[in-house]
Write a structure and sequence with these properties.
By secondary structure, the chain is mainly α. The chain is 85% helix and 0% strand.
Length: 117
């Protein structure tokens, strides 16, 4: 199994845990918000790691450029979540959108070193 699939599975597992908690606390809309936030985080993290992996053994300027690009992807995904929170505040709970995003992103950031080997 390749690294991207394994990372997506870890992200999906984290999404399921957060979504289950959200559904208990906020119902179906909380579940949906947590899944949307978690999906954005998983996508951003897989894209950032895919960008960084080829540069792991490269010279420092190449590595730093790829690392900064990965950070930019994560920041852009956070801005997407903020925009969605404002755009969908009438029907998606913003709290669960943010919790889903942060919980999954932090889980994947913690596990990232496993996927860079």
């Amino acid at each position: 199994m390749n690294w991207a699939l394994r990372m997506a599975l870890v992200g999906t597992a984290a999404e399921i845990v957060v979504a289950a908690l959200a559904s208990v606390e906020a119902g179906i809309m909380g579940l949906a918000a947590a899944l949307v936030g978690g999906g954005i985080a998983t996508t951003a993290q897989v894209a950032a790691v895919a960008l960084l992996r080829p540069g792991m053994k490269a010279e420092t300027p190449v590595f730093v450029r790829r690392w900064v690009s990965g950070i930019a992807i994560r920041v852009a995904s956070a801005l997407v979540v903020v925009g969605l929170a404002f755009a969908t505040r009438a029907f998606l709970p913003s709290l669960w959108l943010a919790v889903g995003f942060l919980a999954v992103l932090l889980t994947l950031l913690y596990a990232e070193t496993r996927f860079l080997e």
